User: What shape does this take?
Amino acid sequence: MKVFTVVGARPQFIKAAVLSRAFLAHNIEEVLVHTGQHYDNDMSDVFFSELSIPQPSYNLAVGGGTHGQNTGRMLEKLEELMVVEKPDWVLVYGDTDSTLAGALAAAKLYIPIAHIEAGLRSFNRRMPEEINRVLTDHVSSLLFSPTQVAEENLLNERIAAEKIHVVGDVMYDATIFYLDRAKKPSWFDVEGFEVNNFILCTVHRAENTDSEIRIRNILSGLGCSQLPVILPMHPRTRKKLESLSILIPDCVRVVSPVGYLEMNWLEANCRLIATDSGGVQKEAYFHKKYCVTMRNETEWVELVEKGVNILVGDSAERIKEAINSSDTYDFSEFIYGQGDTASKIINVLFANTQ
Ligand code: UD1
Ligand code: UDP
Assistant: This one.
């Protein structure tokens, strides 16, 4: 079996680390293609070296453009490579522009597509990710969903039940595998931070960073934290704050994006997490940390239903209230599988390959 994997953005490298290792173990040939959507060292290279991801066979160096530019340029280059490589499967992850480009290129060449993280929905079509995930799901032959909720979303869109496989969450496989390699950042003690006595925060969503009002509100809410806030800042957010000359509140310590092993350590050792990231919301749950989600809706609705994740939008008042909460939360029942998602995916791929 030959699998052509398309990755391009930070969370996809982490997911691919899990699957690439499993492909190697099963002697499955993988052509790993990096679209170049994320290209800074701390947004890309660090994950390949730290997580021992095989160097990509190709790097398309497409990044930094608009959605249309990125998707179009990737599509053209991916099509050329798929024609040459003739894979049995094209594998795409999540909901980025790289995901959609990979799926579209494959669909038009009649190459079957396997979509990991299928069926997630925010039901907000103004999110670029929602367009990417809906379109990708509808051209995929195998849809790997992390939860029953995701499966139901696909069934509601009349996607055939036999294409859908609920396999748990590949990010949980990653959390388990790398947990004992989690790394305390070198600056943590030097700067006087204390374990379980800080808030970990990430913000990068277009809906937050592209709106001056929302990003100002979010920073103002974070500025009311009683605990220090550590904020590894996505380049998109950094550029926006610089262009608007927005000042960072005193209690917020901005650092460069950290590698996955340091991120895991921070997640495991913080008091709680405030984020607009999809992946970080789940990792908060894996580490049994309360998550304050600075969005109006989430794809991970089961976490909100369980009471371990609260949606606060961009309301400074609600952010302030939630991050200063000292309540305790119930993390007893687990909902994202057993950490064996990669092997489940591989079994389904084998069963569906001629
Ligand atoms: C993308 C995904 C989003 C995902 C996120 C993960 C889409 C539509 N969005 O958002 O779903 O949650 O990745 O982090 O695909 N930039 C750099 N250096 C980099 C990467 C980005 O400077 O290494 C800056 C560039 O100015 C770029 C901007 O960030 O134009 C946005 O990057 P882009 O990949 O388009 O979107 P993200 O916000 O990263
Ligand atoms: N992450 C990281 N370093 C950081 C911020 C995030 O390694 O500075 C990891 C995080 O642990 C998670 C993934 O990146 O595994 C989430 O990516 P991101 O928030 O960029 O995208 P999303 O999940 O929202 O698509």
